[in-house]
Every structure is written in structure tokens, then in C-alpha cells.
Amino acid sequence: MTGLEKLVSGGLPEGSPILISGSPGTGKTLFGLQFLHHGVLCGEPGIYVTFEEPRESLVTASENFGWNLEEAAKERKFAVMEYFDLGNEVYFSEMESMRAHLAELESRRKEVTLRDKAEEIDVSMADYQTRLKQIEEMVTERRYTLTQHEREQQFVERLFTLVSTMGAKRLVIDSLSAYAIYDESREAIHRFVRRIRDLGTTTLLISELPKNSAGLSRDGVSEFVCDGIILFSLERTKEATFRKIRVEKMRHTKIDGAERFLWFTDTGLEVRDRPQEI
Ligand SMILES: Nc1ncnc2c1ncn2[C@@H]1O[C@H](COP(=O)(O)OP(=O)(O)OP(=O)(O)O)[C@@H](O)[C@H]1O
Ligand SMILES: [Mg+2]
User: Fold this and answer.
1) Whose CA is nearest to atom 6 of ligand 1?
2) Fold for domain 4-86+147-272?
């Protein structure tokens, strides 16, 4: 990111977990996407793990800055993992082919004139609809009934596999706060960050700070276990609002800890010395 190297000499340390903290709308997600887009350009494949924002929304947001992540995904340089759909992928492809088949039956149904044939198609369509509904219900249930332990296990296994098959060097977890909802204990956060560190990727762990929070992360633990912390914030004065960025820590790296301003340009986020009004 233009200007970030002034704050962190040599850029983000390779293979380290870095905490990205900030209140809503401060640019954390876009920073994560830009980090992965940059990786695509310099031959470092990356993975975005999303808890709330769907894949399409992330891809569309990226297109606004001219980052073609869809193309990168085709070349296996970028991938999105939707946390709550873990383990459901096989059903998605089945549902997709069933929907396609239903659409085909529907158009055939419009064309047939023979009554027997039409009835036959109706029965077949009803069968498909029932099966589709059953799968949809099962997928919804699976989203909510896996225990945290099962989910974490599956998640880590899938992530390890994906990182090694893609040769991923960069990773974004959006967000650590959503992950920790199910287990906020110190131990769980330590374990999670340790597992992420074992991946060997340079990882941005996003933490959602409540508005005007004085803390460094939502959980109060990850700031100690991550190697670096970058804080995103909004400043509102009577006249204007602008976005700010500050590097709180970066282990074994020289930093400029001063508060700087975050700009949104046509090609992405930049760090500058002057504020940009929003
Ligand atoms: N092209 C753009 N130019 C200027 N501002 C933009 C542009 N695209 C998005 N924004 C602004 O960026 C903000 C969203 O950024 P982003 O989604 O990265 O925030 P966030 O910190 O991840 O928020 P949340 O915590 O809600 O997920 C919004 O306030 C939006 O108005
Ligand atoms: Mg976000």
C-alpha cells in the first residue's frame, strides 16, 4: 500500500500474524482485500476467510478499485473461504445442478401439449423441488448445529489444505472477533493465533472495535499474541470526518508510530500526511 512502507520499514514482516483493529467502516476489509490483491500482483497467492460479508460483496468492492479478484481466483491466486459454509460445498454443487435441471424441466413443460407428458414432467419437477428443499434445510441446519470444536477442527484442516495446495503466502481473517464469539477465552485466542502462525502465511487478523473504544482489540488478548498491530479509526470534527491509521507495534521492525491519514483513491487505499474529507 502506498505510504505504508513509511510507517513500517521493509513492509509487513513475512509469516507473522498482524492484528488489524478498528471500529465499523474504518477500511479494515478493504485494506485486507488490497493486501491480497497486491499479493496476486507480486506472485504471493492469498486467501480471504470471511465470517459475515459474502464473497460477491468482497469481489464487487474490489472491482471498484480495479482489482480483478475473480480473474485471480480462476488462476488460483486468490480464494475466499466462507466460514459458515465449511463442509457444505458438496451440497452447493448438487443444489446448483438440481436448479439447472428444474429450469430445464420448466421450459420443457411450457412446450409440451400432450397431457400425459405434462403430468409426467409435473411429477418429476415436484420430486426435484422436494429434494432441493430438503438439502436447503439440511445446509441451514448444518450451519448452526456444528459444535465450535468440530467447526474449528474442520476450519483448520481446510485452511491448511488450501494454503498448501495454493501455495498461499497471505491470509486475511475477517474477523477474529466473529471467530471468538463462540469462545472468548484467552486460551482459545492463543490457540487460534498459534495455529494461524503455524501456517507460515503473513496473516491479517481483523478485530472489530466498538466505536470510541480505547482498547487495541475486541478480545483484549490478541494484541499480545500478534506480532504487529495496525489501528484504523475515524476522526470527526465539527467540519469534517476523516480516516486515520496508526501502527501500534511491529515486532523486530522499525516503525513510525505517528498517526497518519488514510485516503481512498481510484486504485486503493493510501497513507498520507494530510487528511481526506469524507
Ligand atoms: N471507492 C470508495 N471511495 C471512498 N470510500 C469508500 C469507497 N468504497 C468504500 N468506501 C467506504 O469505506 C468504508 C467501508 O470500508 P470497509 O468495508 O473496509 O470497512 P470495515 O472497517 O471493514 O467496516 P466493518 O467493520 O463494518 O466491516 C465505508 O464507510 C465506505 O463508505
Ligand atoms: Mg469489514
Assistant:
1) 264
2) Rossmann fold (3.40.50)
Q: How do residues 201-251 score in pLDDT, each as one tens digit?
A: 999 999 999 888 888 999 888 999 999 999 999 999 999 999 999 999 999
Extended strands (E) in the chain = 17-22, 46-50, 78-82, 170-174, 202-208, 228-236, 241-250, 260-265, 268-272
Top-confidence residue, 3 or 121 = 121
Most informative mutation of 58, 231, 264 for ligand 1 (most atoms within 8 A of CB): 264
Ligand 1 mean position to 25 CA, how many Å?
5
> For residue 52, which atom of ligand 1 is closest to its CA?
27
Atom 29 (ligand 1) nearest CA: 25
AA identity, residue 35:
F
Would you say the CB of residue 22 lies under 6 angstroms from ligand 1?
yes
- Cβ of 264 closer than 6 Å to ligand 1, yes or no, is yes
Using the Cα atoms of residue 242, residue 54, residue 203 and residue 11 in order, give the sign of their dihedral: negative
Is there a contact between 269 and 1 (Cβ–Cβ < 8 Å)? yes
Domains of the chain: which residue ranges?
4-86+147-272, 89-145
Closest C-alpha to ligand 1, atom 3: 264
pTM across the whole model: 0.84
Phi/psi-derived region of residue 42, left when phi > 0, alpha when psi is between -120 and 50, beta in every other case: alpha
Per residue in 49-99, pLDDT (tens digit) is 999 899 999 999 999 999 999 999 999 999 999 887 766 777 877 888 999
pLDDT, averaged across the chain: 91
User: 145-154: per-residue pLDDT in tens?
Assistant: 777 777 788 8
Ligand 1 neighbour 169 (Cβ under 6 A): no
Contact 62 CB / ligand 1 (< 6 Å): no
